[in-house]
Amino acid sequence: MNAKTKSILLRVILITTISFSSIGAGFYFHNNIIIRGTITYLSFEGGFYGIISTTNNSYDPINLQPEFEEEGLKVFFIARRNLEMASFHGWGDLIEIRYIRRI
Question: Please, which contacts does 80-89 make with residues 24 or more away whose CB atoms are closer than 8 Å?
Fold first, then answer.
């Protein structure tokens, strides 16, 4: 497969992934998550914000920006699952957000 074909194939995969993620389906690529969800505040372990996906998966972001710390906020995000750290909160998959926006 030549470089041009690889480039086209990669673009098709990326566009397909983003298209499906906009309808709520989650995708995993090398520990990367592309998904929609709702910000929620959890009061245990000192209190923290997590994300519950449209498929009811729980995510504990280690770098959620303050402007997204809003109960009930709907978001689209791309994140990397952090498999090297243990969650202090013991709730959801530990993730590092790469991109997030309000929806």
Answer: 80/31, 80/32, 80/33, 81/28, 81/31, 81/32, 81/33, 83/31, 87/60, 88/45, 89/42, 89/44, 89/45, 89/48, 89/50, 89/60
Which residue's entry shows tokens 């914000």? 49
Q: Is the domain covering 32-102 a CATH 2.40.50.500 domain?
A: yes
> Which alpha helices (DSSP H) does 2-96 contain, by range?
3-21
One-letter amino acid of 39: I
- Give the residue carrying structure tokens 């280690």: 62
- Examine the pLDDT at 22 and tell me if it is beyond 60: no
* pLDDT greater than 60 at residue 21: no
